[in-house]
Protein backbone atom coordinates (compact mmCIF):
# COMPACT_ATOMS: atom_id res chain seq x y z
CA UNK A 1 0.00 0.00 0.00
CA UNK A 2 2.83 2.37 0.85
CA UNK A 3 4.67 1.49 -2.38
CA UNK A 4 1.58 2.31 -4.46
CA UNK A 5 1.26 5.70 -2.70
CA UNK A 6 4.90 6.54 -3.35
CA UNK A 7 4.58 5.51 -7.02
CA UNK A 8 1.43 7.65 -7.43
CA UNK A 9 3.13 10.70 -5.87
CA UNK A 10 6.17 10.22 -8.14
CA UNK A 11 3.96 10.05 -11.24
CA UNK A 12 2.11 13.21 -10.19
CA UNK A 13 5.40 15.01 -9.60
CA UNK A 14 6.66 13.94 -13.03
CA UNK A 15 3.47 15.12 -14.74
CA UNK A 16 3.62 18.36 -12.79
CA UNK A 17 7.25 18.83 -13.83
CA UNK A 18 6.41 18.31 -17.50
CA UNK A 19 3.50 20.73 -17.40
CA UNK A 20 5.61 23.19 -15.47
CA UNK A 21 8.32 23.12 -18.13
CA UNK A 22 5.77 23.65 -20.88
CA UNK A 23 4.40 26.67 -19.04
CA UNK A 24 7.90 28.15 -18.72
CA UNK A 25 9.06 27.57 -22.30
CA UNK A 26 7.37 27.27 -25.69
CA UNK A 27 5.38 29.81 -27.66
CA UNK A 28 3.00 30.48 -24.74
CA UNK A 29 5.59 30.09 -21.99
CA UNK A 30 7.21 32.73 -19.84
CA UNK A 31 10.62 32.29 -21.48
CA UNK A 32 9.36 32.14 -25.07
CA UNK A 33 11.30 33.58 -27.99
CA UNK A 34 10.35 37.27 -28.35
CA UNK A 35 12.55 37.96 -31.38
CA UNK A 36 9.58 38.54 -33.72
CA UNK A 37 7.40 40.53 -31.32
CA UNK A 38 8.22 43.76 -33.15
CA UNK A 39 6.23 42.51 -36.14
CA UNK A 40 3.04 42.76 -34.11
CA UNK A 41 3.82 46.15 -32.56
CA UNK A 42 1.32 48.97 -33.04
CA UNK A 43 2.23 52.37 -34.42
CA UNK A 44 2.09 55.01 -31.70
CA UNK A 45 1.22 58.54 -32.82
CA UNK A 46 3.88 61.17 -32.09
CA UNK A 47 3.65 63.02 -28.80
CA UNK A 48 1.67 66.26 -28.99
CA UNK A 49 2.62 69.04 -26.61
CA UNK A 50 0.32 71.82 -25.44
CA UNK A 51 0.56 75.15 -27.17
CA UNK A 52 3.41 77.29 -25.91
CA UNK A 53 5.58 74.36 -24.79
CA UNK A 54 8.98 74.07 -26.48
CA UNK A 55 9.63 70.88 -28.47
CA UNK A 56 13.40 71.34 -28.46
CA UNK A 57 14.03 68.48 -26.00
CA UNK A 58 11.63 66.03 -27.70
CA UNK A 59 13.08 63.96 -30.52
CA UNK A 60 13.03 60.45 -31.94
CA UNK A 61 15.27 57.97 -30.14
CA UNK A 62 15.67 55.68 -33.16
CA UNK A 63 15.46 57.71 -36.34
CA UNK A 64 14.79 55.78 -39.56
CA UNK A 65 16.70 57.60 -42.33
CA UNK A 66 15.07 58.40 -45.63
CA UNK A 67 16.19 56.32 -48.62
CA UNK A 68 17.85 58.70 -51.04
CA UNK A 69 18.76 56.11 -53.68
CA UNK A 70 15.75 55.92 -55.99
CA UNK A 71 17.49 53.61 -58.46
CA UNK A 72 16.99 50.51 -56.30
CA UNK A 73 13.85 48.43 -56.77
CA UNK A 74 12.56 47.38 -53.33
CA UNK A 75 9.42 45.69 -54.61
CA UNK A 76 11.04 42.29 -55.23
CA UNK A 77 12.89 39.89 -52.99
CA UNK A 78 15.95 41.15 -51.18
CA UNK A 79 19.06 39.19 -50.35
CA UNK A 80 20.99 40.43 -47.31
CA UNK A 81 24.57 41.08 -48.51
CA UNK A 82 27.61 39.71 -46.73
CA UNK A 83 29.48 42.17 -44.51
CA UNK A 84 32.07 44.16 -46.39
CA UNK A 85 35.47 42.55 -45.96
CA UNK A 86 38.57 44.50 -45.16
CA UNK A 87 41.32 44.50 -47.70
CA UNK A 88 44.17 42.24 -46.62
CA UNK A 89 46.60 44.10 -48.83
CA UNK A 90 45.71 47.48 -47.36
CA UNK A 91 46.33 46.50 -43.75
CA UNK A 92 49.40 44.28 -43.84
CA UNK A 93 51.01 46.92 -41.59
CA UNK A 94 49.14 49.05 -39.13
CA UNK A 95 50.99 52.20 -40.19
CA UNK A 96 52.58 52.83 -43.57
CA UNK A 97 53.60 55.78 -45.71
CA UNK A 98 52.11 55.77 -49.19
CA UNK A 99 53.37 57.76 -52.15
CA UNK A 100 51.91 58.74 -55.52
CA UNK A 101 54.11 61.02 -57.57
CA UNK A 102 55.21 63.86 -55.29
CA UNK A 103 52.35 63.27 -52.86
CA UNK A 104 52.95 61.32 -49.65
CA UNK A 105 50.59 60.52 -46.79
CA UNK A 106 50.40 58.28 -43.72
CA UNK A 107 47.90 55.42 -43.77
CA UNK A 108 46.78 54.11 -40.37
CA UNK A 109 44.47 51.11 -39.92
CA UNK A 110 42.34 52.84 -37.28
CA UNK A 111 39.43 55.25 -37.34
CA UNK A 112 40.07 59.03 -37.43
CA UNK A 113 38.54 59.32 -33.97
CA UNK A 114 41.29 57.01 -32.64
CA UNK A 115 44.11 58.64 -34.61
CA UNK A 116 43.22 62.23 -33.63
CA UNK A 117 44.34 61.93 -29.95
CA UNK A 118 47.50 60.10 -31.05
CA UNK A 119 48.48 63.02 -33.28
CA UNK A 120 47.74 65.49 -30.49
CA UNK A 121 49.84 63.40 -28.09
CA UNK A 122 52.76 63.33 -30.56
CA UNK A 123 52.76 67.13 -30.86
CA UNK A 124 52.53 67.58 -27.10
CA UNK A 125 55.36 65.15 -26.30
CA UNK A 126 57.65 66.90 -28.78
CA UNK A 127 56.78 70.38 -27.46
CA UNK A 128 55.33 71.45 -30.82
CA UNK A 129 52.96 74.32 -30.18
CA UNK A 130 49.43 73.95 -31.56
CA UNK A 131 47.77 77.23 -32.51
CA UNK A 132 44.66 75.97 -34.32
CA UNK A 133 42.53 72.83 -34.25
CA UNK A 134 39.32 71.87 -36.04
CA UNK A 135 38.27 68.40 -34.91
CA UNK A 136 35.18 68.44 -37.12
CA UNK A 137 37.26 68.74 -40.29
CA UNK A 138 40.39 67.04 -38.91
CA UNK A 139 42.77 70.01 -39.13
CA UNK A 140 45.69 70.79 -36.78
CA UNK A 141 48.11 73.68 -37.30
CA UNK A 142 51.35 74.17 -35.39
CA UNK A 143 52.94 77.43 -34.36
CA UNK A 144 56.11 78.74 -35.97
CA UNK A 145 59.07 76.41 -35.50
CA UNK A 146 62.79 76.96 -35.88
CA UNK A 147 65.12 74.22 -37.10
CA UNK A 148 68.60 74.10 -35.59
CA UNK A 149 71.19 75.72 -37.79
CA UNK A 150 68.64 77.63 -39.88
CA UNK A 151 68.78 81.34 -39.05
CA UNK A 152 67.02 82.52 -42.21
CA UNK A 153 63.66 80.76 -42.16
CA UNK A 154 60.93 79.68 -39.80
CA UNK A 155 58.55 76.79 -40.44
CA UNK A 156 54.95 75.81 -39.84
CA UNK A 157 52.96 72.59 -40.36
CA UNK A 158 49.36 71.77 -41.13
CA UNK A 159 48.15 68.22 -40.46
CA UNK A 160 45.01 67.05 -42.25
CA UNK A 161 43.41 63.92 -40.78
CA UNK A 162 40.93 62.26 -43.14
CA UNK A 163 38.94 59.09 -43.54
CA UNK A 164 40.80 56.53 -45.68
CA UNK A 165 39.35 54.71 -48.66
CA UNK A 166 38.79 51.60 -46.49
CA UNK A 167 36.49 51.45 -43.43
CA UNK A 168 38.26 52.15 -40.12
CA UNK A 169 41.30 53.61 -41.83
CA UNK A 170 42.81 57.08 -41.62
CA UNK A 171 45.00 59.21 -43.85
CA UNK A 172 47.26 61.92 -42.45
CA UNK A 173 48.42 64.53 -44.95
CA UNK A 174 51.24 66.88 -43.94
CA UNK A 175 51.68 70.36 -45.44
CA UNK A 176 54.82 72.39 -44.72
CA UNK A 177 55.42 76.09 -45.26
CA UNK A 178 58.53 78.18 -44.72
CA UNK A 179 58.96 81.97 -44.65
CA UNK A 180 61.74 84.39 -43.87
CA UNK A 181 62.60 84.72 -40.19
CA UNK A 182 61.62 88.41 -40.04
CA UNK A 183 58.14 87.81 -41.54
CA UNK A 184 55.40 88.90 -39.09
CA UNK A 185 54.06 85.78 -37.40
CA UNK A 186 50.58 86.91 -36.56
CA UNK A 187 47.42 86.96 -38.64
CA UNK A 188 45.93 84.53 -41.13
CA UNK A 189 48.28 82.17 -42.92
CA UNK A 190 48.01 81.61 -46.68
CA UNK A 191 48.91 77.96 -46.99
CA UNK A 192 50.59 76.86 -50.23
CA UNK A 193 49.10 74.16 -52.46
CA UNK A 194 52.13 71.92 -51.81
CA UNK A 195 54.90 71.82 -49.23
CA UNK A 196 57.67 74.39 -49.54
CA UNK A 197 60.34 71.89 -48.51
CA UNK A 198 59.79 68.19 -49.23
CA UNK A 199 62.62 67.14 -46.91
CA UNK A 200 61.09 68.91 -43.93
CA UNK A 201 57.66 67.54 -44.86
CA UNK A 202 59.19 64.05 -44.92
CA UNK A 203 60.83 64.65 -41.52
CA UNK A 204 57.48 65.41 -39.87
CA UNK A 205 55.76 62.54 -41.65
CA UNK A 206 58.43 59.97 -40.73
CA UNK A 207 58.52 61.04 -37.07
CA UNK A 208 54.73 61.02 -36.77
CA UNK A 209 54.35 57.64 -38.50
CA UNK A 210 57.07 56.06 -36.33
CA UNK A 211 55.43 57.36 -33.15
CA UNK A 212 51.95 56.09 -34.06
CA UNK A 213 53.40 52.71 -35.06
CA UNK A 214 55.37 52.38 -31.81
CA UNK A 215 52.36 53.35 -29.69
CA UNK A 216 50.39 50.52 -31.27
CA UNK A 217 47.09 52.21 -30.49
CA UNK A 218 46.97 50.63 -27.05
CA UNK A 219 45.53 52.69 -24.26
CA UNK A 220 44.38 55.47 -26.57
CA UNK A 221 40.81 56.64 -26.19
CA UNK A 222 38.80 57.75 -29.20
CA UNK A 223 38.00 61.43 -29.49
CA UNK A 224 34.34 62.37 -29.35
CA UNK A 225 35.15 65.66 -31.07
CA UNK A 226 36.68 63.83 -34.02
CA UNK A 227 33.78 61.40 -34.49
CA UNK A 228 32.49 63.41 -37.44
CA UNK A 229 35.69 63.15 -39.51
CA UNK A 230 34.96 61.30 -42.73
CA UNK A 231 31.37 60.31 -42.00
CA UNK A 232 30.52 60.38 -45.69
CA UNK A 233 33.53 58.27 -46.69
CA UNK A 234 35.72 58.58 -49.77
CA UNK A 235 34.21 55.66 -51.68
CA UNK A 236 30.53 54.82 -52.08
CA UNK A 237 28.64 52.30 -54.19
CA UNK A 238 25.88 54.22 -55.93
CA UNK A 239 23.64 53.83 -58.97
CA UNK A 240 22.56 56.04 -61.84
CA UNK A 241 20.29 55.26 -64.79
CA UNK A 242 19.92 51.75 -63.38
CA UNK A 243 23.69 51.06 -63.47
CA UNK A 244 25.80 50.63 -60.31
CA UNK A 245 29.10 52.48 -60.07
CA UNK A 246 31.78 53.34 -57.52
CA UNK A 247 31.87 57.01 -56.57
CA UNK A 248 35.41 57.99 -55.53
CA UNK A 249 36.06 61.32 -53.81
CA UNK A 250 39.70 61.27 -54.94
CA UNK A 251 41.69 63.17 -57.53
CA UNK A 252 41.89 61.44 -60.89
CA UNK A 253 45.56 60.44 -60.69
CA UNK A 254 45.07 58.67 -57.38
CA UNK A 255 41.73 57.14 -58.45
CA UNK A 256 43.33 55.71 -61.59
CA UNK A 257 46.27 54.30 -59.63
CA UNK A 258 44.21 52.71 -56.85
CA UNK A 259 41.72 51.15 -59.28
CA UNK A 260 44.70 49.75 -61.20
CA UNK A 261 45.89 48.08 -57.99
CA UNK A 262 42.42 46.73 -57.20
CA UNK A 263 41.81 45.11 -60.61
CA UNK A 264 44.80 42.84 -60.11
CA UNK A 265 43.60 41.35 -56.81
CA UNK A 266 41.10 38.73 -55.54
CA UNK A 267 40.28 36.96 -58.80
CA UNK A 268 40.90 39.92 -61.10
CA UNK A 269 43.68 39.80 -63.68
CA UNK A 270 44.76 42.96 -65.46
CA UNK A 271 45.24 42.27 -69.17
CA UNK A 272 45.81 45.76 -70.51
CA UNK A 273 45.10 49.40 -69.71
CA UNK A 274 44.99 52.76 -71.45
CA UNK A 275 45.22 55.81 -69.20
CA UNK A 276 44.46 58.15 -72.12
CA UNK A 277 40.97 56.72 -72.63
CA UNK A 278 40.63 55.70 -68.95
CA UNK A 279 39.89 52.00 -69.43
CA UNK A 280 41.23 48.83 -67.80
CA UNK A 281 40.75 45.55 -69.69
CA UNK A 282 40.51 42.78 -67.08
CA UNK A 283 39.48 39.21 -66.48
CA UNK A 284 37.72 37.81 -63.41
CA UNK A 285 38.00 34.23 -62.19
CA UNK A 286 35.50 33.47 -59.39
CA UNK A 287 37.43 30.32 -58.40
CA UNK A 288 40.42 32.45 -57.41
CA UNK A 289 38.37 34.22 -54.72
CA UNK A 290 37.10 31.07 -53.00
CA UNK A 291 38.24 30.62 -49.44
CA UNK A 292 40.62 27.83 -48.71
CA UNK A 293 42.53 27.98 -51.98
CA UNK A 294 45.93 26.48 -51.32
CA UNK A 295 48.96 28.55 -52.20
CA UNK A 296 51.60 26.76 -54.29
CA UNK A 297 54.29 25.28 -52.10
CA UNK A 298 58.01 26.01 -52.14
CA UNK A 299 59.00 22.93 -54.18
CA UNK A 300 56.11 23.56 -56.59
CA UNK A 301 57.50 27.00 -57.32
CA UNK A 302 61.05 25.67 -57.51
CA UNK A 303 60.41 22.87 -60.00
CA UNK A 304 57.53 24.42 -61.93
CA UNK A 305 54.63 22.39 -60.51
CA UNK A 306 51.30 21.97 -62.26
CA UNK A 307 50.13 25.58 -62.07
CA UNK A 308 48.02 26.48 -65.09
CA UNK A 309 48.94 29.65 -66.99
CA UNK A 310 46.62 32.62 -66.63
CA UNK A 311 44.03 33.01 -69.36
CA UNK A 312 44.58 35.82 -71.82
CA UNK A 313 42.36 37.57 -74.33
CA UNK A 314 42.69 36.87 -78.06
CA UNK A 315 42.11 40.60 -78.62
CA UNK A 316 44.10 43.65 -77.62
CA UNK A 317 42.45 46.51 -75.80
CA UNK A 318 42.77 48.63 -78.93
CA UNK A 319 40.85 46.02 -80.94
CA UNK A 320 38.16 45.74 -78.26
CA UNK A 321 37.66 49.51 -78.09
CA UNK A 322 37.46 49.74 -81.88
CA UNK A 323 34.57 47.23 -81.99
CA UNK A 324 32.36 48.33 -79.08
CA UNK A 325 28.68 47.42 -79.24
CA UNK A 326 27.11 50.41 -77.49
CA UNK A 327 23.48 51.41 -77.25
CA UNK A 328 23.05 54.92 -78.62
CA UNK A 329 22.19 56.71 -75.37
CA UNK A 330 23.27 60.07 -73.97
CA UNK A 331 24.95 58.30 -71.05
CA UNK A 332 27.01 56.03 -73.30
CA UNK A 333 28.00 58.93 -75.53
CA UNK A 334 29.26 60.79 -72.47
CA UNK A 335 31.06 57.82 -70.85
CA UNK A 336 32.79 56.72 -74.04
CA UNK A 337 33.38 60.15 -75.58
CA UNK A 338 37.16 59.59 -75.41
CA UNK A 339 36.89 56.21 -77.18
CA UNK A 340 36.95 56.05 -80.96
CA UNK A 341 34.95 52.99 -82.00
CA UNK A 342 35.75 52.83 -85.72
CA UNK A 343 34.13 49.54 -86.70
CA UNK A 344 30.52 48.45 -86.48
CA UNK A 345 31.57 44.85 -87.00
CA UNK A 346 31.21 42.70 -83.89
CA UNK A 347 34.18 40.71 -82.64
CA UNK A 348 33.47 37.08 -81.81
CA UNK A 349 33.33 36.02 -78.14
CA UNK A 350 35.14 38.93 -76.51
CA UNK A 351 36.11 37.77 -72.99
CA UNK A 352 36.69 39.78 -69.86
CA UNK A 353 35.41 43.13 -68.65
CA UNK A 354 36.05 46.82 -69.22
CA UNK A 355 36.56 48.92 -66.08
CA UNK A 356 35.90 52.52 -67.06
CA UNK A 357 37.22 55.42 -64.93
CA UNK A 358 35.61 58.81 -65.55
CA UNK A 359 35.47 62.18 -63.83
CA UNK A 360 37.56 65.14 -62.74
CA UNK A 361 38.51 66.93 -59.55
CA UNK A 362 37.40 64.84 -56.58
CA UNK A 363 34.38 63.38 -58.40
CA UNK A 364 35.36 60.09 -60.06
CA UNK A 365 33.00 57.32 -61.18
CA UNK A 366 34.11 53.75 -61.88
CA UNK A 367 31.87 51.45 -63.94
CA UNK A 368 32.31 47.88 -65.12
CA UNK A 369 30.96 46.60 -68.44
CA UNK A 370 31.32 43.38 -70.43
CA UNK A 371 33.87 42.99 -73.25
CA UNK A 372 31.54 44.79 -75.66
CA UNK A 373 30.98 47.68 -73.17
CA UNK A 374 27.39 46.56 -72.61
CA UNK A 375 25.74 46.91 -69.21
CA UNK A 376 25.99 43.95 -66.86
CA UNK A 377 23.04 42.77 -64.75
CA UNK A 378 22.94 45.08 -61.73
CA UNK A 379 23.55 42.24 -59.28
CA UNK A 380 26.67 41.05 -61.14
CA UNK A 381 28.01 44.59 -61.49
CA UNK A 382 27.59 45.24 -57.76
CA UNK A 383 29.41 42.03 -56.87
CA UNK A 384 32.41 42.88 -59.06
CA UNK A 385 32.48 46.51 -57.96
CA UNK A 386 32.45 45.47 -54.31
CA UNK A 387 35.51 43.28 -54.89
CA UNK A 388 37.25 46.26 -56.48
CA UNK A 389 36.05 48.45 -53.60
CA UNK A 390 37.59 46.13 -51.01
CA UNK A 391 41.03 46.36 -52.63
CA UNK A 392 41.35 50.10 -53.10
CA UNK A 393 44.28 51.66 -51.26
Automatic annotation (TrEMBL):
Coiled coil: none
Highest taxon in the source lineage: Bacteria
Pfam families attached to this UniProt entry: Lipoprotein_18
Protein's name according to its UniProt entry: Outer membrane protein assembly factor BamC
